[in-house]
Design goal:
Elements: E1 6-11, E2 17-23, E3 29-34, H1 45-51, E4 55-60, H2 77-90, E5 97-101, H3 103-114, E6 122-125, E7 136-138, E8 144-146, H4 150-154, H5 157-167, H6 171-181, H7 193-210, H8 216-225, E9 249-254, H9 263-272, E10 276-281, H10 294-304
């Protein structure tokens, strides 16, 4: 069946159940979309509308998000990766393209590093750092240090604030937090009354997705401790898996990102060199999902067609 949203679930061999939506024709190249933290599969609705006539799209809820199960707690970014591997194998999807946003970007990259032949090209939108997301606290000596334990994260004011939003189902607080986090992108996404209404509707899907999050502190710990590099200076031993990458990837990042700073992607570019095609979007924040700007879609489609992309920022 073509160009329809078929909401489905699949039970994996690890007993987790993954919820997903399907769009497009089976005759087309498969494309899997992986959402960010606190989000769900609906966060890609803008991209789906643009790409569903060209690709066979699978938009997933990661474990512990949306309508997917959360039987086994996440302890590492690689737990998500194993789920995606089992998903691809269960549905017998052949060489899918992977697009990952934020957390989903880290999952997509990890999949390519561990199972390079399982997927074809990967595109990372404002991806998390390959050496972990730093969260800082103040120790007993009044010194600012990076959180290293789950206990430190659970008691951190930031984590407690977010957990409070979710436990109280405080949509107004979640909405305000999102608008502040996305600041720098959202004004580019609301040109005209019709587009503003579409944007507000899309934002509301994200607000609602927060209410289904069941893995808040587990995912935060996984993000803090992940390290694909050989550098242990951040306090978590690196596994060096980033050196396994042999194919080019595309990263798109906003220069005004307040959630995952663009320096994270600059670090990845520095390590990978020519294997990383990095395009930095001027005056964009973390929200690379809700917009009608043609430039970002051109970057995606050009990369998928294997055309050469000239980075917008020189290094």
């Amino acid at each position: 069946m073509e160009n329809q949203n078929l909401n489905k679930i699949v039970k994996l061999s690890n007993n987790e159940t993954i919820a997903f939506s399907e769009y497009g024709s089976y005759k087309n190249q498969a494309l899997i979309m992986l959402h960010g933290n606190y989000n769900n599969k609906d966060s890609f609705l803008y991209y789906i509308a643009r790409l569903k006539n060209t690709f066979k799209i699978y938009a997933l809820d990661l474990r512990g998000f949306g309508d997917s199960s959360y039987l086994n707690p996440i302890t590492s970014i690689y737990d998500f990766t194993e789920d995606i591997k089992l998903f691809i194998e269960s549905l017998k999807i052949k060489s899918p393209i992977i697009i990952g946003f934020s957390l989903g970007g880290g999952v997509a990259l990890a999949l390519k590093l561990l199972y390079p032949s399982l997927c074809s090209k990967i595109i990372l939108l404002a991806p998390v750092s390959i050496s972990g997301i730093p969260v800082y606290t103040v120790n007993k000596f009044n010194k600012r240090v990076r959180c290293k334990t789950k206990e430190e994260l659970i008691t951190h004011p930031y984590s407690r604030m977010l957990e409070d939003f979710i436990s109280k189902k405080d949509k107004n607080a979640i909405r305000a937090y999102l608008y502040n986090s996305f600041k720098g992108s959202e004004e580019l996404s609301k040109n005209g009354e019709e587009e503003r209404k579409k944007y507000e509707k899309a934002m509301e899907t994200i607000v609602n997705s927060w209410l289904k999050v069941r893995n808040l502190n587990d995912v935060m710990m996984a993000l803090v401790s992940m390290n694909f590099t050989n550098d242990d200076s951040a306090g978590f031993k690196g596994d060096g898996n980033i050196k396994k990458l042999k194919e080019k990837i595309l990263i798109i990042h906003g220069d005004n990102d307040k959630v995952v700073p663009v320096t994270c992607s600059l670090q990845t570019k520095k390590i990978l060199g020519d294997l990383c095609l990095l395009s930095v979007l001027k005056n964009w924040g973390h929200n690379l999902l809700f917009h009608e700007d043609n430039s970002i879609y051109k970057l995606v489609t050009d990369f998928l067609k294997s055309e050469i992309i000239e980075p917008q920022t020189k290094f």
